[in-house]
From TrEMBL:
Keyword entries, A-Z: Hydrogen ion transport, Ion transport, Membrane, Transmembrane, Transmembrane helix, Transport
Encoding gene (name): Tcirg1
KW Transmembrane helix (keyword) present: yes
Organism listed in the record: Chauna torquata (Southern screamer)
Pfam families: V_ATPase_I
Protein name according to UniProt: V-type proton ATPase subunit a
Length: 506
């Protein structure tokens, strides 16, 4: 009996159910072969890449063939015609191979054409991008303009710096001439009581620092801009916290590379947001690296290791000769103490930074942390005091002299009475106590805590006579300045508003 064929493709996860149903429905009157494709193809329905399974079913009888075709439709198989004779199959195969070759040629030529088009687009893309950005900016401004009564011209109310007013007038005049307009555009200054927006001109060096200041708040019109001072204070305070010659050098070289190649299109046009953040702050990173190198030399740390630039000022030999350390003593004492009170053991301060011998001491961290903490406190309070004093220029410029008394004065009293006094204690203890009487030197921390508790500690000797009364007066002054800070300006403005309502001059 002649046999027929059904061929097609099916999803791989449907093969088992498809084969089992064919076998049961046709009662075994068929021969089925399944082979996976060597390469995955795209599913036209879902767009997913699927490794299809090719099947070839040989059957006998028309009724069995109808069952096979219906089952194939139910399983969403892609069925293709299969010639009966060998010659027809060979002709079909050769025809398909010819079509594949023709399509490959067409696709290759299309890719070449697209590559040529893209090469031309790459050259014109920067110009197009600038044109689109200009058009977008122009139409954005036009959308914010309003029509006049005749609906034939646009009116725009804008803020413009006085120094740029001539450039704006020249640009409008040139635009009117190039557009062929019969009516020339003009600028008219109008009076207003509104406060102008703040315009701070920056360049590629100051833009990063200005962004940091603006993150905390934009200064009002004609207020003092603290960004120029932040150019030094911000990277220097960073270096105080992370002072290391090695790490600072890596930061400095990385930032220097970005600065030297800042005009490179690959760096400026990168789409990575994190990279753009680093690139925009390249000058900030450059200064942070430079200051970190400086403070790293002061801390004498290079990748957390001390370096010997100058000879150490401590003499172990002198200490050994004075103490008569024997070999047996050294064998039983892995840690030795150098006494600076012995003549010749300590010959003076290190020429620059921390003596490298401190890196070998067991109390190295205690000494270095105490040094960093005191230096951070002193510089931080000086920085805060400088920021408060900047407000003097704002108060004087805006003729708000009441804020000098009700805000600036209590702020300075609070700052100096508490933290300024702490700086005084640090320097006073440093000047008064030397290595000879270091064992009886009192703790500044305990004194500062007792200052707020209005108590005294008998085990912690006072730094000077009358210290407790002075500290009590300072705490009272600091506490008294708090209500003045909170209520002084609001009460003054309320009283002035009432006097204006009643007709009295302020």
């Amino acid at each position: 009996r002649p046999h027929s064929f059904v061929t097609g493709v099916i999803h791989p996860w449907r093969v088992s159910a498809f084969e089992r149903l064919l076998w049961r429905a046709c009662r075994g009157y068929l021969v089925a072969s399944f082979v996976e494709m060597p390469e995955p193809l795209e599913d036209p329905d879902t767009g997913e890449s699927v490794t299809w399974v090719i099947f070839l079913i040989s059957y006998w009888g028309e009724q069995i063939g109808q069952k096979i075709r219906k089952i194939s439709d139910c399983f969403h198989c892609k069925v293709y015609p299969y010639p009966e004779s060998e010659a027809s199959r060979a002709d079909t195969l050769s025809g398909l191979l010819g079509q594949i070759q023709d399509l490959s040629v067409v696709l290759e030529e299309t890719e070449q054409y697209l590559a040529q088009v893209l090469d031309k687009v790459v050259l014109a893309l920067p110009t197009w991008r600038v044109q689109v950005q200009k058009m977008k900016a122009i139409y954005l401004v036009l959308n914010q303009c309003s029509l006049d009564v005749t609906e034939k011209c646009l009116i725009a109310e804008v803020w413009c710096p006085v120094r740029d007013l001539t450039q704006v007038q020249d640009a409008l005049r040139q635009g009117s001439y190039k557009s062929g307009s019969s009516v020339e555009c003009f600028v008219q200054r109008i009076p207003t009581v509104e406060s102008p927006p703040t315009l701070i001109r920056t360049n590629k060096f100051t833009a990063g620092f200005q962004s940091i200041v603006d993150a905390y708040g934009v200064a009002s019109y004609q207020e003092v801009n603290p960004a120029p001072y932040a150019i030094i204070t911000f990277p220097f305070i960073f270096a105080i916290m992370f002072g290391d010659v090695g790490h600072g050098l890596l930061m400095f070289l990385f930032a220097l590379w970005m600065v030297l190649y800042e005009n490179s299109p690959s760096l400026r046009q990168a789409s990575n947001e994190i990279w753009l953040t680093f690139f925009e702050g390249r000058y900030l990173i450059l200064l942070m690296g430079a200051f970190s190198i400086y403070t790293g030399f002061i801390y004498n740390e290079c990748f957390s290791k001390a370096t010997v630039i100058f000879p150490s000022a401590w003499s172990v030999a002198t200490m050994a000769n004075h103490s008569s350390w024997s070999s047996a003593y050294l064998a039983t004492h892995p840690s030795l103490t150098l006494d600076p009170n012995i003549t010749g053991v300590f010959r003076g301060p290190y020429p620059f930074g921390i003596d490298p011998i401190w890196s070998l001491a067991t109390n190295h961290l205690n000494f270095l942390n105490s040094f960093k903490m005191k230096m951070s406190v002193v510089l931080g309070i000086v920085h805060m005091g400088f920021g408060v004093l900047l407000g003097v220029f704002n108060h004087v410029h805006f003729q708000q002299r009441h804020r000098l008394v009700l805000e600036l004065l209590p702020e300075m009293v609070f700052l100096l009475a508490l933290f300024g006094y702490l700086v005084f204690l640090i320097f006073y203890k440093w000047v008064k106590f030397s290595a000879a009487d270091s064992q009886v030197a009192p703790s500044i921390l305990i004194h500062f805590i007792d200052m707020f508790l209005f108590t005294s500690n008998a085990d912690n000797l006072p730094l000077y006579q009358g210290q407790v009364p002075v500290q009590m007066v300072l705490v009272v002054l600091a506490l008294a300045s708090v209500p003045v800070l909170l209520l002084g300006t609001p009460l003054y403005l309320c009283c002035r508003r009432r006097r204006r309502k009643t007709g009295h001059p302020p």
